[in-house]
Amino acid sequence: MDWVKRSNKNERLWLLAKIEFKLRYYENKLGLLWALIKPLMDIAIYYVVFQVIMKQAIPAFASFLFIGLILWNFFLESTTGTVQILNTKKYLYEYSNMNKLEIYVSTLLSNTIGLFFNFIMFLLFLNILEKDAMHTSFYTLWIIPLFINLFILSLAVSLILSNIYIIAKDITQVWQVFTSFLFFLSPVIYRLSTFKEALPTFDYINPIAGIIINARRTTMESTNPDFKLFLFDFTYAIILLVIGLLLLNKLGSKAAEKL
């Protein structure tokens, strides 16, 4: 019976994720194509600014940007898109047997579908169009634990922000400003040496920076991740997740009456 219940719960989570993904993209005229076009448009903009105008001379710069942007966009969409989730999806936990944590997980799974398509695009781009880059090797499989780290981190931050929103709705604006600042404190658009020179040891303070650094090491340099950095990032994610779950237990239980 427990196995059946778990199976039904997993099926429900996946169904909700697919529904949300379809609603997000299929209402647009471009549909799913928009999920693929957006990172390509971002790449084109940053490529012109940093490679053509500022001449950073980073090898395989388009792929360098691609992997950084799709990981950053997943984090950004997963956190900004869930700040008000306890309000916008109140009907799910009030009128069904879904618990609140399932709602968060299904939303992040929806974003995972988009990231999967973008990552396939990145691999095709890297292997077919980037002549000077190392091609995909078995080191690329490290992207799985790195993504799990990113997923846990995004879930943790989502839990924290959405529960703070119950008592302080200004958190939405605060987070928008903070993520704009955090983007330029992450090595998304410039080389690691420049990042380390300007902000030494900051890759150990900023977990999203560490995930992007290790993703590039494994997918573009065909080498192992920096295990010390990986451990730091995972530890941050777990600590933040515990904080998020505590807030959900304390504040989330009153969400229906306060929102």
TrEMBL record:
Topology versus the membrane: Multi-pass membrane protein
Keywords, ordered alphabetically: Cell inner membrane, Cell membrane, Membrane, Transmembrane, Transmembrane helix, Transport
InterPro entries: ABC2_TM, ABC2_TM_bact-type
Location of this chain's protein in the cell: Cell inner membrane; Cell membrane
Residues covered by the ABC transmembrane type-2 domain: 30-251
PROSITE patterns in the cross-refs: ABC_TM2
Keyword Transport: yes
Main location as per UniProt: membrane
Keyword Kinase applies: no
Bilayer-crossing regions: 31-50, 57-75, 103-129, 141-168, 174-192, 229-248
Xref: Pfam families: ABC2_membrane (PF01061)
Family classification: Belongs to the ABC-2 integral membrane protein family.
Name used for this protein in its record: Transport permease protein
Organism of derivation: Niastella soli
